[in-house]
Write a structure and sequence with these properties.
elongated, about 75% helix, transmembrane helix, 16 helices
Length: about 375
């Protein structure tokens, strides 16, 4: 039994279902970019319900839109518009499925489903490729479409890798620290190897002590108190992250943590330290920080931004826009400019993120090790 839906409403939906999904997917991405960072600092029920709903709908709507695009291109009875521009939009939907850097999962259970997400990546990428294949050789938007498709595939894959790294199985494998001989071990071995054949043992000891003293004297007093607090929080997080996978903490770590807190003079500073620890935990488990804060991730972020700029320029100057409808042209420009703005916002947030500041400090710390 069919529902008594008026015929004019059916025709209107058949005409606008794809366009509605495209616009709705863009709206959901804007909501995630704006509101996802709030979740880290707020316990408001309405915010969590809203973000949970947007998080689920964002994946669903983008996947449905890709399906509608391929359906409109393969069904001869459905004439909804320019197939080339639809294939272009399908590449943008891969960007939407990749999501913003500020949220990859809503709960720890989502991280466990990284294999299912990987299957979704393969399926949706195949759908976008199939949509593009249907427009060849008459596709006048081939160059910008290929550029956006490449960036969208990378962003979608980044999210899957972030889910895998944050899954408890993998997190447990890296929770235990690697054996650490000390920051002066390599320097001591190098000095010993260079001097043992020409110097007496007493001279070796004096040389090693003098060189290693250069590192011990290194005390970054220019660092702000907030940076020192962040580094302390990171040190404590490294000691206690095994608790998330039911590892036992040694008595030395417990006593060290207790000593650090007893040395803090004010309660406000203690709570600030705990806040930094919780922030690091949240970023590693529910954002892309573990993927982006690496050399490969930084290179990919730089290339993706400039690729979107090139795609926008190529669309503006190399494509005959007179054959496009006004609505299609507006939506495409909104997609292009929106993707560039989101990449810029993500880059700024990355520069000021806790993990990025810690990585910069660690690189600076390594540069002070005598060679």
């Amino acid at each position: 039994m069919e529902l008594p839906i008026p015929e004019n409403i059916k025709k209107l939906w058949d005409l606008w279902d794809l366009r509605f999904c495209i616009l709705f997917s863009l709206f959901l991405q804007v909501c995630l970019v704006i509101f996802a960072p709030w979740r880290q600092r707020s316990r408001r029920t309405w915010l969590h319900i809203f973000l949970w709903s947007v998080y689920l709908m964002a994946d669903w709507v983008a996947a449905v839109a890709i399906g509608l695009i391929t359906k409109s291109q393969t069904n001869p009875f459905i004439a909804k518009g320019n197939g080339s521009i639809f294939a272009f939009w399908a590449s943008f939907l891969l960007l939407h499925l990749g999501g913003p850097d500020s949220i990859t999962s809503f709960s720890l259970e989502d991280n466990k489903l990284w294999i299912r997400h990987l299957f979704g990546v393969l399926l949706q990428v195949f759908g976008a490729v199939y949509s593009l294949f249907l427009t060849i050789p008459n596709n006048k938007l081939l160059i910008p479409t290929l550029i956006v498709f490449f960036v969208g595939t990378i962003k979608y894959s980044e999210r899957t890798v972030a889910l895998y790294l944050a899954s408890l199985d993998n997190f447990g494998a890296i929770a235990l620290p690697e054996p650490y001989a000390g920051h002066d071990y390599e320097a001591a071995v190098a000095i010993y190897s260079e001097t043992r054949s020409v110097e007496a043992p007493e001279q070796i000891a004096i040389t090693m002590a003098a060189n290693l003293g250069n590192f011990k004297d290194y005390n970054p007093t220019s660092e702000s108190e907030e940076m020192k607090l962040l580094l302390t929080a990171y040190s404590l997080f490294e000691d206690f992250k095994g608790l998330f996978v039911d590892f036992l903490i040694s008595s030395n770590d417990r006593e060290s943590s207790r000593k650090k807190f007893l040395e803090i003079e004010s309660a406000e500073t203690s709570f600030r330290l705990i806040e930094y620890e919780l922030s690091l935990i949240y970023q590693l488990l529910h954002t892309k920080v573990s993927v982006v804060c690496s050399r490969f991730g930084l290179v990919v972020r730089f290339l993706s931004l400039w690729s979107m700029v090139v795609a926008c320029i190529s669309f503006h100057y190399l494509v005959d826009k007179h054959k496009l409808k006004k609505f299609e042209l507006i939506v495409t420009y909104v997609f292009l400019i929106g993707a560039i703005v989101v990449d810029i916002i993500s880059g700024v947030n990355l520069i000021f993120s806790d993990m990025f500041l810690i990585d910069l400090h660690q690189q600076s710390w390594k540069n002070h090790i005598p060679g």
